[in-house]
Amino acid sequence: MIKTSDYKTIREMLEAEEQLTLSPFASLSQNSLGRDRNEPQDDIRPVYQRDRDRIIHSKAFRRMKHKTQVFLAPEGDHYRTRLTHTLEVSQIARTISKALRLNEDLTEAIALGHDLGHTPFGHSGEAVLDRLCSEGFVHSEQSVRIVEVIEKSGKGLNLTKEVRDGIFNHQTAGDPSTLEGHVVRISDKIAYLNHDVDDAIRAGLLTEQDIPKEYTDVLGNNVHDRLSSLIHDVIMHSIGENSINMSGEFEQAMFKLRKWMFANVYVGGRAKEEEGKAQHMIELLFNYYMDHPDDLTREYRELMANGTGKERAVCDYISGMTDTYAIEKFEELFVPKGWKF
Questions:
Q1: What angle do CA 184, 97, 169 make, to 5 degrees?
Q2: Which of 28, 77, 137, 218 has the CB geometry, 3.0–4.6 Å to 130, for a possible disulfide?
Q3: Coil, strand or helix: which one is 100?
Q4: Chain centroid to CA 18: how far?
C-alpha cells in the first residue's frame, strides 16, 4: 500500500507506484537515461510527464492545428489536421499502453511530439524540401530538431532520451528502444489509416462499399469497427510479451488497405488536385529565402548566427510554417498589390 507520508515528494510516490503496477517490460520514469542538460527533478511530476507537458506548451505543437494532414485546404471543420491526427494517435497509443501496463506518460509524450516537424501541406511539402535541401528533409528528424534546438529560442525543450528516440523512430522503418515507442509507431498507422478513410468518405471521394471486401472482412465494415478491431488485435498479441505485435492476418489486411488508399486517395484522388500548386509555392519560398536570408524571422537568423547553415535555417523556417502562414508569405512576396495615386 503506497502512503504519501512515506515519500518526500509526490513524484517519488508516483515512481514507486510505477514499480508496483507497471509491466516488467515498461519504461520506468526513475530509470530514464535522462536529458542532455541536467536539471533538478520536479517535486510532483516524473520525467516523462514533464516532457509531455513541455511538448503541449510548445509553439510547434500549437501550429499543428493549421497544418494539413491529407486534405489540402478542405472546406469544412471536421477534416483532420496535423493536430487532430496527433491527438488521435495519442488516444490510441494510451489505450494500448494502459492495457499492456506500459508507461502512459512516456507513450503520450512520444505521441504528442511525433509530428512536430511536419511541413505545411503535409507530405507533399515534405517531399519538396527533401528535394531542395542538399542534406535532405525528413519530418521525423525535424521533429527531433525542433525539441532539441529550435524551441525556446534555440535552447530546445531538453526532453529525455527515451522521448526523443520514440519521436525519431515513429516511422515504418524505425526501431524504437522502448515498447512505448513501438506502441506509438503502430498507433500512428492505425490512426491515419482509419481517419483518412473517414475523411475520404466524408468528402465523397469513396464510399464504404468501395473498400475491397478482402480487407473489410478482416478489419470491419466501418471506421469504428476497424479501429476497435485493430486495437484489440495489437493488445491481445502483445500481452505478456517484450514486443508489440499484430496478428499476421490483421497486419496483412492493414497494409494492403494502406496500399489501396495510396492508389485511390493519397496519390490519385481528387483531394490532391491542389498539391502541385502547394509544392510550387514552397519551392518559390525556399528559393526566395535562400537569396534573402536576412528576411527570415529573428529566431532563425539567430540560429544562423549560432552556426546553423543557411539552407538548414531556411528549411527550419519553412517547415515550421502553417498552411495559412505559407500562403500569406507567398502572397506578400509574389502577388502584386494594388496601389493608389
A1: 20
A2: 137
A3: coil
A4: 26
